[in-house]
Prior knowledge:
Blueprint: H1 7-15, E1 25-32, E2 37-44, H2 50-63, E3 70-77, H3 82-96, H4 98-101, E4 109-114, E5 117-124, H5 126-134, H6 137-148, E6 152-159, E7 185-187, E8 189-192, E9 202-204, E10 212-227, E11 233-240, E12 245-251, H7 257-261, E13 268-278, E14 281-293, E15 318-319, H8 337-340, E16 344-351, E17 361-370, E18 373-381, H9 390-396, H10 400-403, H11 409-420, E19 424-427, H12 430-443, E20 452-454, H13 455-462, H14 471-478, H15 487-507
Parallel strand pairs: 2-3, 5-6, 16-19, 19-20
Antiparallel strand pairs: 1-2, 4-5, 7-9, 8-14, 10-11, 10-13, 11-12, 13-14, 15-18, 16-17, 17-18
Amino acid sequence: xxxxxxxxxxxxxxxxxxxxxxxxxxxxxxxxxxxxxxxxxxxxxxxxxxxxxxxxxxxxxxxxxxxxxxxxxxxxxxxxxxxxxxxxxxxxxxxxxxxxxxxxxxxxxxxxxxxxxxxxxxxxxxxxxxxxxxxxxxxxxxxxxxxxxxxxxxxxxxxxxxxxxxxxxxxxxxxxxxxxxxxxxxxxxxxxxxxxxxxxxxxxxxxxxxxxxxxxxxxxxxxxxxxxxxxxxxxxxxxxxxxxxxxxxxxxxxxxxxxxxxxxxxxxxxxxxxxxxxxxxxxxxxxxxxxxxxxxxxxxxxxxxxxxxxxxxxxxxxxxxxxxxxxxxxxxxxxxxxxxxxxxxxxxxxxxxxxxxxxxxxxxxxxxxxxxxxxxxxxxxxxxxxxxxxxxxxxxxxxxxxxxxxxxxxxxxxxxxxxxxxxxxxxxxxxxxxxxxxxxxxxxxxxxxxxxxxxxxxxxxxxxxxxxxxxxxxxxxxxxxxxxxxxxxxxxxxxxxxxxxxxxxxxx
Length: 508
């Protein structure tokens, strides 16, 4: 007779089998419905002999439905290696807290392992340390690390001096989408010369300013003075021209710095500067600034001209072959109208990295939901114009060899635009995937106008009892098993999570 238990009860029983299993954790549950087979994948900080593994198997069999003919386990030893931990911390902060991580180098992360406790220190600027403390980033980072390693984590911050080279790269720095450059311009009024009498009155749209020397304009939304470690003052200036936002640094100039300091929030400027890279990420430096009046009658000129293709050319959709696994105890129920009357496309991307400016797409996975059912899948590897690092290969399983003959993203985008045409997009941490798709669709002169839903936000709203709302935790909650970090398997899991969340939403 099997017993229905929660994940926490199950893992507690496993840990009670032997002191060597004190820190064992369930990493993944794989189910093969066709062959009625289930496999529990554990991670542990100790090597586990076969005799003890047999005991773990017995516990797993007790809580497994008899609908499964075969029950298997694997126990992989995962040691809390300092180098791996530091890489995970650095990647997490880059992804979740870019306005903090811009001044953080890998060498600014100092970790030490003492027994089952890992202590780490983040060497940040004073502003960065305050931001991390006030926004609970340390707690969120600890939660993330404890899912990946068999250890408990405690983090703190240490103040370091700001460096001479300054790069401003908060979330506000990025335009909502990065697109192919066109000469769309804004003509400002009433220019008051401060730095450059020859700058003129014409600027490009911020959303078109991708790299190199550019002239932009906009209303100042924030301005703050800072000093380098050598005492040299500089300003951090944020502007918005209604097509996008950008932020940059303006270094002290003997004759004009005091005039620039007098500019206040709400005033407008036209500025010449340079968009480049700092530590592999987008950086903007204001070189010359004049005052101006932003035109009240400005109307954004549409850029896109391409319609969605009528036919698929390279990547063709296929019938859905679900690999999700739901609990054998789930009951069928009537699907809500909101789910059955609209068409959804759930999608996921694998990329060469997290930074939008300096990375490409390596894989696209998507499934279509029609009448509340998963009907089609769209999947392809993509050959990026960016190198796939060894670290990224370990995370996604996608190597340079695998993508060497894959189509380029410019070839794939038209087919993907056809696949999503008229659908509401769904993704887990949707903002990340949407930004990448908008960037590369824009480069091919397509506009992604689809509305979209984020299953992270949905899970926070409808599953408040969960401590975390990452994909694995949500999948575990609904009894959905998958191979994480490949686009198509992530998509099927997200699609099933989305359907379950829509049911919960419409119950009450």
